[in-house]
Fold this protein.
Amino acid sequence: MQGWWGNLLQGALSAVIGGVVAALTAWAVVTATRRHERQAALEIEARTSAVDFFLLLADMDIQLTKALDSGVALPRMTEGRDWTVKALKAEIAMFSLGRKAGNAFSQKVGDLRRALELVEGDDPPREEPVKAAMAALHTLSDHLADWLMQGRHQPDASG
């Protein structure tokens, strides 16, 4: 009789331990999945913001080129709602990916903003400050393009 009771307790204990291990495994899988989903959502938001900001930079490049080629006065681009919303949104999204990505992006946005503020409203625009603003814009555009293309160029498996 004692052997039967021992087997029952051993089976019950094994079932409890198995249940605890299964619960811990399920919890770990769910936690890892949620963490991955959260990171993926942050990256999607950052990429969307970066593309929106990239398009704004393309428009600004056109305006700077016109100012340089034909002497057209530049509007106050950094005071508008479009600049403020898109720059802040992209900056916040970059910082959500990490301090390194956020700091690098923020530094380049600040450099561009300062360069643009020196030429906005000049009539006629001065050539050297406009060229400096274009250089800052291209640096930021290149930085964004490089970041957006990370992991996109995979070697062709067919050789």
User: Anything to note?
Assistant: The domain at 44-149 is CATH 1.20.120 (Four Helix Bundle (Hemerythrin (Met), subunit A)). The helical segments are 2-70, 81-96, 99-119, 127-149. The chain has four helices and no strands.
